[in-house]
Amino acid sequence: MSMNERKDPDGATLRAAGKSWRAEHKAARTLGIIVGAFLLCWLPFFLWYVTTNVCGEPCETPSVVVGVLFWIGYFNSALNPLIYAYFNRDFRDAFKNTLMCALPCCFSCWKDTGTAQFV
């Protein structure tokens, strides 16, 4: 056992505990960003929805505004894979491989090896 690998009372090394804490911190940060993006994207729609139902007829909203509010919310679904790809290397590699295979005009994909090559 090296000097950097002292054991705690449970027998686990402090280095392993630090690694575990970093992984949990990274997961919590990613989850916080996912939840924050959800709130930012859907909060305008739900504020409008509640306000309209409380206000009644006098609070008519142009259909363009309603459409924009919906699309901001829908945009959240496009953000999620991008956020996961940014914070998770395994997800990023799988996402990149899927995109490369899905765009045959730009890439050639060999499904047997799971690799893609730019054409």
Automatic annotation (TrEMBL):
Record carries keyword Cytoplasm: no
Gene Ontology cellular-component terms listed: plasma membrane
Keyword Cell membrane: yes
Gene Ontology terms for molecular function: octopamine receptor activity
Membrane topology: Multi-pass membrane protein
Stated family: Belongs to the G-protein coupled receptor 1 family.
Protein's recorded name: SFRICE_017642
Organism name: Spodoptera frugiperda
